Hints:
This protein is of the alpha+beta class.
Amino acid sequence: MEKHYETVCIVKPDVGEDVTKGVVKKATDALEAGKGKLNKLDEWGRRRLAYPIAKKSEGYYFVMDYTSVPAVSKEIERLLKLNENVIRLQTVAIIETKASVKAALAAVAPAPAAEQGAEGGQNG
């Protein structure tokens, strides 16, 4: 069963552009080899890290949004973890259900006017 994933990866900032592009290419090639579908690839470029990682204060970020079976997602993570130029990565499964969408909409929707009047009118 295919699932929706998002992988954020930070590459060392002091490697060349060709090395960085190679890391991105390896990840996308692994996805294609596993018959996954790349929905979106965002290359954020060099950004300042919130805290130093491996004595680095910057990193090259890229984000992959894709759909695949869990085994392909694990293979992408494995390949990135083995790469010495990757300093951090995180993969999350995006869960989209009708119930979760309804709950999210209810949480941000304003209360109906009748309820607001009953709550705020009396202090006693």
